[in-house]
Amino acid sequence: MSILVKISKKRIPYKQAMDMLEKRVNDVKNGKKRELIWMLEHPLTYTGGVRFNKNDILDPNISVIPTNRGGKITLHNPGQLVIYFVIDLNKRKRDIRNFVTVIENSIIECLKDFGLKSNRDKKNIGIWINKKKIAAIGIRVKKWIAYHGCSINVNNNLNDYKKINPCGLNSNDVTSIKNEKKKKIKPNLKKIKSLFVKNISTI
User: Fold this and answer.
1) What is the pTM (predicted TM-score) of this model?
2) How far apart are CA 77 and CA 43, in angstroms?
3) For residue range 95-144, what is the model confidence (pLDDT) as tens digits?
């Protein structure tokens, strides 16, 4: 089972990434391209998922890009690691909850490498440390091709969250690896890549 892993060194504009992701979904569905795990950063961008509520915008001056992923309003900004997937569940278990669990477990294992103990929450999807959200997950499925993905707050500016209620939460309920460790962290992308490929391959 072959999964292409792509790591983008330059920041990718959100809309450009979504266009590429949608094309990849169709190519995987038609057997033209391999499945994908794509690791990148975005410039500062606010996005609204399918459960987005305009009341969660606290600063009327920001622009929010609507998207077809699951979830509410969130942001992407420099220092946040974004991991996108295009995974064909037709070749695996047609079980979205199981796929999300694999992603959750992968993030929890990543955070262990930084000496951080984290957990999932059955009511609020994502990964948490001391009741603060450190990683978000938003998945969409098209003809059993699962795509979109997750984000992990590493060194990003948490003040950017103050303009929204991220995922319906208060901005004070969000944290990062840097915030928890009290120092700047550089993630080992090769190790994270290996971990996600290994876990997804077990589905």
Assistant:
1) 0.93
2) 5
3) 999 999 999 999 999 999 999 999 998 778 899 999 999 999 999 999 99
**With 60 as the cut, is the pLDDT of residue 1 above it?**
no
State the Cα–Cα distance between residues 17 and 101, nearest whole angstrom.
24
Q: What is the DSSP string of 157-203?
A: -GGGGGGB-GGGS-GGGB--HHHHHTS-----HHHHHHHHHHHHHT-
Domain boundaries, the chain: 3-201
**DSSP H stretches of helix in the chain:** 14-29, 96-112, 177-181, 189-201
- Under the banding of pLDDT at 50, 70 and 90, the label for residue 70 is confident
Catalytic annotation, pick one of 167, 169, 177, 200: 167
Assigned superfamily of 3-201: Bira Bifunctional Protein; Domain 2 (3.30.930.10)
Residue 40 banded pLDDT, cuts 50, 70, 90: very high
Is-catalytic flag, 150?
Answer: no
Determine the distance from the C-alpha atom of residue 128 to the mean position of all C-alpha atoms in its chain, rounded to a whole number: 14
Tokens 């190519």 identify what position?
A: 27
